[in-house]
């Protein structure tokens, strides 16, 4: 008889995941079987379940790439984790390690990469597999439910902020104060940046203030471009967009200072009209940024371990995943929802 475990499964693209049973997988070479303690719920999981992006996962699959759990079995070969260690799965589940991107410190761009909860089953279940060469090592004593969001939201914005090239004392706008954005505010403060937060909900702006934003803008009521221009006397040096609406991407160009750098983290489906004149005359740099490397992840986790950042987390159960997705669609979540198993 094969052993079974419970998971939330995308059987077809659409609003409802099915809570069902799957066969317990056996870890292959370089793999570990992990018993989940917690998993964050990222907006990417919702995009995955709805088949939002041009490159789609293949149902049936289990989403989730902010999973924290205990290693219970190891596959063949050498591993630098052992049974009993607390590890995590991440979006960059594995990469080839040999291509140009991998060799030059851009493993996140590897064409052979596997993505946790997308091309490989993820953390919305009692068990998951990780590749022990790429999994996260969770700092000792971390609260699993609280540290989980660092594994995607945290590392993504930590890397994204670095990619804005903003220096201590300069302004950075965090546009979108959801799961990613509320942690971005904290990293930016910890890095010595002056933080301006933009969202379309007052609750999110309140959270941004609590985490250290010095100026907040409700994009539903105030046009963020002129407001940032006036507050910063010329625009923000860096802009990090984590929002889930294309309007925010357009507004980033208005909020940036001359010579500034805009980084896109958010991934709403669609596009936005980009004003060529403004981009040229302000000599803007606009870049995309995708999660982070293993090194970025280690650094991002270290900020947490040293108490420099603390995700705002609400606990839920695996069975709640559909209602969490419903709240996420309507922007009703404060910080991150995190499943406790
Ligand atoms: P979330 O749902 O927790 O937060 C989204 C936030 O955007 C909410 O606070 C919402 O109020 C806000 N928002 C919506 N419209 C807005 C607007 N017009 N202006 C300003 N704010 C607006 O989502 P999340 O988990 O933080 O993820 C955000 C996005 O980042 C998703 O598209 C997700 O797929 C993407 N993501 C990208 C990466 C990456 O590596 N680039 C990694 C993780 C997530
Ligand atoms: Zn994510
Ligand atoms: Zn590679």
From TrEMBL:
CDD domains: CAD3 (cd08297). Transmembrane segments: none annotated. SMART domains: PKS_ER. Residues 14-339 form the Enoyl reductase (ER) domain. GO terms for molecular function: alcohol dehydrogenase (NAD+) activity; metal ion binding. The keyword Transmembrane does not apply. Its EC number is 1.1.1.1. InterPro entries: ADH-like_C, ADH-like_N, ER, GroES-like_sf, NAD(P)-bd_dom_sf. It is an enzyme of class 1 (oxidoreductase). Keywords: Metal-binding, NAD, Oxidoreductase, Zinc. Its cofactor is Zn(2+). It catalyses: a primary alcohol + NAD(+) = an aldehyde + NADH + H(+); a secondary alcohol + NAD(+) = a ketone + NADH + H(+). It comes from the Bacteria. The keyword Cell wall biogenesis/degradation does not apply. Belongs to the zinc-containing alcohol dehydrogenase family. This is Alcohol dehydrogenase. It comes from Corynebacterium canis.
